[in-house]
Design goal:
By secondary structure, this protein is α/β, with parallel strands linked by helices. Helix content is 63%, strand content 12%.
């Protein structure tokens, strides 16, 4: 059984830990407001970008010869690039492991089907999770530890690397993995194919098509050739913003749980300490009384 001194030291240690987790929870709550606002502001732009591309792609129709390579694809699905976006730091519950697990499952599925897979990790923590199994197919980690607030330029740098790889013929399909922010307690791991993009068909009735006509200058192919690379950067940027909000939400929830668990542990240790102290006092009194009676 631990001595009273050991119990006092342990209680003091847990109290210090509780102060740290409480402070981290408050910091995460403060950062969450800004990150959530940025993620929500980016969604309409990303959705509008998809709508514009869908309209122009519909105008091109099924003429694959005139469609840019980024839209039509290479005509093969033999090689895949998995862009895994996770955080640079831990202590955020299952946020990083959920994204890494989704990426790992997709990689296993593709490898089992005989496909060539390359993993591009954006963020250190996800790379740490999958490195033991996929070290041979992993690219160097895109390090964002020194980035205080994720900006479009960070996403543009990643997009340039991805586009260079695509132009060099190093993959046929690129899929983006991130966590979509829903609430403090809900972050949804998401897989989104960005090369070639999955563009929904635009449904138009006859009256709408008859009354609305678009003339494109330059032609649709040239517009898409300029728009598609921008879309890759936009989608990566949105993923990074969603991840930033999800990370802070997950950390806020995890630190709240840790703070409450520390409080319960302190109560349990205090109860044990008081019982042991009472037993020690009782033992000392019995020894004093026994000694007095012996005299």
């Amino acid at each position: 059984m631990a001595s009273l001194k050991d119990l006092r030291n342990r209680i003091a240690s847990v109290k210090a830990t509780q102060k740290i987790t409480k402070a981290m929870q408050m910091v995460a709550a403060a950062k969450l407001r800004r990150a959530q606002a940025a993620a929500e502001d980016a969604r309409p732009f990303s959705q509008r970008m998809d709508a514009v591309m869908a309209n122009i792609a519909t105008a091109i129709g099924d003429d694959a010869a005139s469609a840019p390579k980024l839209l039509a694809g290479t005509g093969s699905d033999a090689s895949h690039l998995l862009i895994m976006c996770t955080a640079e730091r831990g202590l955020c519950g299952g946020f990083n492991s959920a994204i890494a697990r989704l990426t790992r499952d997709r990689a296993r599925e593709l490898l089992a089907a005989g496909k060539t897979v390359t993993i591009l990790p954006v963020g250190k923590k996800g790379a740490d999770v999958v490195r033991s199994e996929f070290s041979e197919i992993m690219m160097p980690v895109v390090d964002l530890r020194d980035v205080k607030h994720v900006g479009y330029e960070n996403a543009a740098d990643v997009a340039r690397s991805v586009l260079d790889m695509f132009n060099d013929g190093r993959f046929d399909i690129a899929t983006l993995f991130y966590s979509e922010f829903e609430s403090v307690i809900s972050q949804v791991p998401t897989a989104q194919q960005i090369i070639p993009p999955t563009i929904a068909k635009v449904e138009t009735d006859e009256s709408a098509s008859a009354s609305v006509m678009y003339d494109y200058e330059p032609d649709e192919g040239e517009i898409l050739a300029d728009l598609l690379p921008r879309n890759v950067a936009v989608q990566i940027f949105r993923a990074l913003l969603e991840n930033a909000a999800s990370e802070q939400g997950a950390r806020m929830s995890a630190m709240d749980n840790a703070t409450r668990n520390a409080g319960e542990m302190i109560d349990s240790l205090n109860l044990t300490y008081n019982r042991q102290r009472q037993a020690q006092i009782t033992t000392e009194l019995i020894e004093i009384i026994a000694g007095a009676e012996a005299l």
